[in-house]
Amino acid sequence: MPRLTWQAAELVTSTPETGTARTLRLRVPGWRGHLAGQHVDVRLTAEDGYSTRRSYSLAGPADGEFLDLTVESVPDGEVSPYLTEIMRPGDQVEIRGPVGGWFVWRPGGDRPVLLVAGGSGIVPLMAMVRARRQAGSDAPFRLVYSVRGPGNVYYADELRRPDPGLDVSYLYTRSVPEGVSRPAGRITQADLAEAGRPAALAPDCYVCGPTGFVETAADLLLALGHAPERIRTERFGPSGG
Ligand SMILES: Cc1cc2nc3c(=O)[nH]c(=O)nc-3n(C[C@H](O)[C@H](O)[C@H](O)COP(=O)(O)OP(=O)(O)OC[C@H]3O[C@@H](n4cnc5c(N)ncnc54)[C@H](O)[C@@H]3O)c2cc1C
Questions:
Q1: H or E segment at 211?
Q2: Do residues 132 and 109 make contact, with C-beta atoms less than 8 angstroms apart?
Q3: Chain segment 153-173, per-residue pLDDT in tens
Q4: What is the DSSP letter of 105?
């Protein structure tokens, strides 16, 4: 495995996903490719030499020298408001990666997969959904996506489009759209029993989101009988510093 080095990355486009999140398409000459589920470190350096870095998941499978990141602007954050509100096409940051070898999905098999996303934790799971589609994989995928309300869904149009073998269900924590009977609330065992996959099928489970969400969802999967070695987690806690 070659040592990772910092590489220049130029912003090509910045597209809104929700009122607070944007997808950044970066061009990284010489990018060696990556797997769905991996992330990169992004480094910003000020004119006085101060620099800071944060981790961001890759939102899609490798696409030549282009990478997509989706960043939620954290109020008062040091890095995410710059990336989402200030950075303009042509501006550069440095990135290093790809990072991570466990929280990855590789096309190839047809094992069932259960994806459980909380908020921006959808990003690496969407990379898996896209990698599956790109590879023409038959692996049955089920995505359970917990969001505050319908306006907080990333990739909403794409997730609405038919994708045979992919089932998507939403759990709303604060604002429930008309016609949905489940009351607003955090993920429960009953939700995962209903929208997830039976443990007897032994799906590969990938859980990603804020630390508290990931810990709760992983405990619920264990309580439902999923084997610990089938549950992979990625926590989006504060990074860098
Ligand atoms: C492996 C990994 C992958 C990640 N992938 C993504 C991604 O795809 N998209 C994305 O938007 N973020 C992702 N994150 C989170 C990201 O790295 C930053 O932590 C986040 O953007 C906040 O950075 P900031 O500099 O804006 O805020 P900071 O200046 O670091 O923090 C400002 C305030 O916000 C709080 N805070 C920091 N991070 C979070 C958070 N994630 N949620 C809620 N409060 C927070 C801090 O405690 C602090 O009070 C990932 C984190 C990890 C570890």
A1: helix 211-223
A2: no
A3: 999 999 999 999 999 999 999
A4: B
